[in-house]
Amino acid sequence: RAWTWGRPPRIGEGRRHRVELSEGTMKAARTKRSEMTDISAALRTFASKGRPTKEEQAQRRQLFQKVIQYLTIGIDMSPVFSDVIMNAHTTDVATKKMLYHYITHYAQANADLALLTVNTLQKDCRGEDPVIRGLALRSMASMRVPDLVEYLIDAVRLGLKDADPYPRKTAALGVLKVHDLAPEALAETEILEEVRKMLISDRDASVVANCLIVLREIDGERALATKQNVYGLINRIKDFTQWSQVTILETVALYKPADKSETFDVMNALEDRLQSSNSAVVLGTVKVFLHATLDFPDVHQQVFERLKAPLFTLANAGAAETAYAVWAHLHLLTTRAPPLFAMDYKSFFCRGSDAAAVKKLKIEMLTAVADDVNTYDIVSELCEYVTDVDAVIAREGVRAVGRIALDGDQNVAGIVDRLLQFIEYNQEHITAETLVQVKDLVRKHPRWIDQCVVAVSGIELETIVEPEAKAALVYIYGEYGQAMPEAPYMLEPLLDEFDEEESEEVRLELLASAMKLFFKRAPEMRDMLGKALAAGTNDANQDVHDRALMYARLLHKDPEAASRVIAGYKESVANFSDGAGFADKFGEQIFDEFNSLSVLYRKPAFLFTDDKPVEVPRTPDVIEAAGDGGGGSAMMGDSLIDFGDEPVGASSSRSAIDDLLGTPAGGGGGG
Fold it and tell me: Which residues 6+ apart lie within 8 Å of 422 measured at CB?
């Protein structure tokens, strides 16, 4: 209550306000108690009626809906527990479901209340209606009360022998609940053996599917991959739902046929599953075919040819999410056997309706299948993607052309020309990605050095923003500066502003390039190198500090040795290992986990689940060298490089620089 502006509250007005609030709270509490009393009375009234009319059944149903509604919003309805139990004799299925929901909710938190429901649930487990029998068994298993395990085992045993399939499939899942609560008690019974028999002999497919799920959890997946189980499930696979078929196919994939004849029998029985509209069923069947033929290379290759058509059809039809999952699996197969997909390269051309993630996969697949026949068609298509409005796709196009040029043989001159033409687009992201690819190209194929140097010589470092691209251009200036008259003067602005460069990668590359150019064009680089080494040894980053100090000490001790180490002859790079990811390292394991998230994540399951945590071994030296990971607090005297008996510190590093310059390092003079 707000007081009137301009006058103070009268004496007792605030107290009266508090009294009114407390009276309102008490009134609400009295209303709640009154309503709870009314619900309890109504429940008892309905419980006393042996044969209620349809109207009375509808009223009781509405009353139970009210109870469940209050329970859902957090109101404690446990005071009417006994009244709810008194209505357990109802034959209305909807009311029965709500009653079981109420019982399960409160029995999990209060074991004493759970004991009050045992007789009711046991009676319903023997009722005439199979739906009620199944619901009662499910409710008893869902309470998860250890004191009720004995009663639950009897109910499960009875449900497994029920004539109706609904109680049987409910009882099958109840076995798993019992195993979770008391595995020792379950092992002492014959229930598991009964479930194993039902897996083969039960007439209902839904019961068999539940038995399969339970046994996969209890016995293990590989324990079920026997010839009897596999043949029994394959012969009836059409009777199961699509998701049950997926579970069956996972089990069949673990079965190893005895010979080639048995392999063909399994594949012939599952041939029609490749035409399924469900992507999980198709991919599960593909996994069975691939794993069954691993020991037969000729058949394995034929399987690849057979699987292409259904996979392409499935990938081009359906939702974007499903399409991505199928394309991810096609990506795995394509990178595993590129020659088998070389003739289908046009199927990997991007469509305007494709999602960006799908386009990225297709570009990588185009790169993988490129060969002597289709390379120029693929490169022409990739060049179209370079102008895409999406910068990510444009980068992927440049990267793909660079990889094809990198992996090509002597006949890639036209591809190199296409790659270098991207620099003329004057687009920042395209130029940046092109520089990265050019750097790798000249490292692996020295014959393209002259052409690449001419193409990049007109690029000014100030126009490059991305650290990786800037580092690539600095590398080219340092490595091939003898063929680029303007190289020292291109590096000079960056070397003068060494302290302002944010990227550690660029600062390290600046130090290396300055050293290389010093041995090639010493008069032009003396002052610049001295400033760079002085700034580097004062750098807060430990790696940059150590690199600058190492260069300074090498120059101080043996300039000829420094020249051999830093600017010596370099062999061309055969393979680049820095781009290798989990897909290359764990390729076989990812293939073994086909039709799972491992394919989408491109890493084995143990890297993103808690099933098999992996500990990376670290030697004491590595741990000690790693430090606390923070380069900002590193001091010049804390170098990790051992230069012998001479102490490593500020005075010794400055003496090395002074020896190079002939003047104090801070003075910037020549030496």
Answer: 386, 398, 401, 430, 431, 433, 434
- 422 near 431, Cβ under 8 Å? yes
Helix, strand, coil fractions of the chain, as percent rounded to 5: 75, 0, 25
Q: CB of 440 within 8 A of CB of 479?
A: no
Model pTM above 0.70: yes
**Which contacts (CB < 8 Å, 24+ apart) does range 369-374 have?**
369/334, 369/338, 369/339, 369/341, 369/342, 369/344, 369/345, 370/345, 370/404, 370/407, 371/338, 371/339, 371/342, 372/409, 372/411, 373/342, 374/342, 374/345
Nearest to 51 by CA among 60, 63, 42: 60
Place of tokens 């189980």: 229
Give the containing element (helix H, strand E) for 234: helix 227-235
> Helix/strand/coil (H, E, C) string of 443-491?
HHCHHHHHHHHHHHCCCCHHHCCCHHHHHHHHHHHHHCHHHCCCHHHHH
- Could you read off the pLDDT of 179-235 as tens digits, one per residue? 999 999 999 999 999 999 999 999 999 999 999 999 999 999 899 999 999 999 999
Contact indicator for 460, 453 with CB cutoff of 8 Å? no
Range among 59-63, 245-249, 569-573 with highest mean pLDDT value: 245-249
Q: List the Cα angle 472/477/480 in 5-degree steps.
A: 110
pLDDT tens digit string along 414-461? 899 999 999 999 899 999 999 999 999 999 888 889 999 999 988 888
C-alpha of 242 from chain center: 25
Question: What local confidence, expressed as pLDDT, does residue 31 receive?
Answer: 63
Under a CB-based contact definition with an 8 Å cutoff, are residues 168 and 136 in contact?
no
Distance separating alpha carbons of residues 69 and 536, to the nearest angstrom:
70
Residues contacting residue 423 through CB under 8 Å, at least 6 positions apart: 431, 434, 435, 455, 456, 459
pLDDT confidence band for 18 (50 / 70 / 90) = very low
